[in-house]
Design goal:
Blueprint (H helix, E strand, L loop, with lengths): L2 H12 L6 H9 L5 E2 L13 H6 L10 H5 L9 H5 L2 H14 L3 E5 L2 H12 L5 E5 L4 H10 L2 E5 L4 H11 L6 E6 L11 H10 L2 E6 L14 H8 L8 E6 L9 E5 L1 H10 L1 H4 L6 H16 L1 H18 L14 E5 L4 E6 L2 H13 L2 E2 L2 E2 L8 E5 L6 H16 L1
Helix pairs in contact: 6-14, 7-8, 15-17, 16-17
The protein binds pyridoxal-5'-phosphate.
Amino acid sequence: MDRIFQDKINDLKKQNLYRDQNVINERLSRQKELINFSSNDYLGLAECSISEILNINATDYSVNNLTELMQIPFGSSGSRLTTGTHLEHKELEDCISNWKACEDTIIFSSGYLANLGALSALIDKEDVIFIDELAHSCMWDALRINNARKYIFAHNDAQELRRLIQKYRNQYTNSFIITESIFSMDGDLAPLDDLKSIADEYSSFLYIDEAHSTGIYGATGAGLISEYKEKNPEQNFSNLIQMGTLSKAIGLEGGYISGSSSLIDFLRNKARTYVYSTASSPFLMKIAQHNIQKIIHENDLRQKLFSNIKYLDSLLSNLKTKNEIDIEHKFHWTNFGSPIFTIQFQEIDKCLTVSNKLLEKGFICTSIRPPTVKIARLRICVSSKHSHDQILSFYTALSIALAA
Ligand SMILES: Cc1ncc(COP(=O)(O)O)c(C=O)c1O
């Protein structure tokens, strides 16, 4: 019987699409010496330990002392609607609502479950969805559950969205435009101005996944939507639904949806991944509040991040292949001002080879392959914790590996 799976694995290997656990194990054994250039921990907060949290000037943030922290349970004991809700969940939901200037917030155990639960609950079969072709897998998985009619628009193509919505919107009850504000695998930005005005014009909800922009953009790091709201205070945002994670710049795990009180109240009743799953650890909820306060108050974390992004961009500019394919070596690189850079390869094995060479030199830089993306790439992420020296060494190793 087991042959079935071995054959499937062999097929993956033949296509260079096998994800090798041994490579991951090797990385684990060298963890201390490796420098990570593929992490979503853009502000270095995932590395924080309890002692670091307690060392910070006690009056600044929400964790005031060790005694307080030691009393918070690790486990929640049940789902949120039974026995799982603790004060820390409520505090974190309020903290995110204030940060994002929304009426209310609902927390899920992961970003994946937030998208899965929210989108499958919010959209009925009489409704219509307009979704960016590069939206994250968990949004597509949600759409498989709810069976609503969907139209896919080309990546960030507001004109195509307008054409589709103009043609089909009227045939359905409610309409949802779904996208990411910073795209996870490309690092580019959604055209929020255009999307918002199309959503307003065609009475549609605008559902935006802010996983990769939260912690980074806006005056207090609340994300690209918050930055957009700051610039357009006269607009009405009642059709906006924001999704976010605790797992990227906030450095932990968990996900949330923020929006109007009635939207969140509805999700508390109908989002199955909330109702039928054990609530997140109250302890993590406390640390998340702390990390958000740190993001709000320590503006220099974001300044350092953007200085590092500029520095790597300037180094990569020596390769002269930004958005243009190097004919000889068949790759090109991209960056759109966010912490996510890509080096895209026409051949998957070249991408794997460069990733392995970087690992030999002490850098984690993972290759992302189909089906996650159409074109194989190294997804390079800059963090505020990288020093310029580390970025320079990484660039040097990378340019040697690319030229080989
Ligand atoms: C855009 C986007 N949305 C949602 C998720 C899921 O978040 P989490 O890792 O917290 O489950 C991810 C993570 O990969 C993501 O990149």
